[in-house]
Amino acid sequence: MAWLLLFSAGLVEILFALSLKYNEGFTRLWPSLATLVFGGGSFYLLVLAIKILPLGTAYAVWTGMGAVGVAIAGVILFKESADLYRLLSITLVIVGIIGLKLTDSQ
Predict the structure, then answer these.
(1) Into how many domains does the chain fold?
(2) Is 0.90 topped by the overall pTM?
């Protein structure tokens, strides 16, 4: 259950970060509200997950999921670079997340 909470927190974190692109410095109402809801929701789910999972593991996975998700979304949605080094770097973060999951006893 804790890993499901953490995975959900990571997905909501991606939505939070993407909403930052659209709120234009909190000058647009609905994207700004989405930013606040997604940010709070992601943080809340993380707090629930760290009641069970080790803090270092949970935080690293949460931030890693956010970083990977936003990097991939940037390539797809915003036509950001998809060069070999960027994709390799994203892959390395994914490998790190998987490694943390595999070494956790929860």
Answers:
(1) 1
(2) yes
